[in-house]
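note to self — DONT lose this again. spent like an hour looking for the file last time. sequence + predicted structure for the chain T wanted, 143 res
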Amino acid sequence: MTFKSKKDGLFSTIILGTNGFLILVLIFLFSNKTIDKNDVFPIIILLATIIFTLWLFFGTYYELSKESGLVYHCGLIHGKIKLERISEIVKGKTLWVGFRPATSRNGLIVKYDKYNEIYISPQSNETFIKKILELHSAIKITE
């Protein structure tokens, strides 16, 4: 089952506001009409930054299955965690430091192995927890 990532106002404002500013910079560069070879590298960097951040924003999702476990995708970042490795899920908290393939606050902190944790933000925490418990009922859920 696939779960899209929830997008909250803070994250949306930061990503879309930053991209809007970068697009304005690009428009200013192109409206100048005197683009020389020294402008090519900054234009490529700006375009790459815009594309990458939009990819992170719109391309973040999670998959759950018995065979693969929890699979996360966030732009270039992707990976999988077998369900047997997950020991606990902390609900409704935000992980400010650490590994965060997420686009929202108040998501889920997934603790696995001995000391590892990952923060995800499915659109519905309850639906995600219900599905993961169907697949592996030994996972502890903490509020």
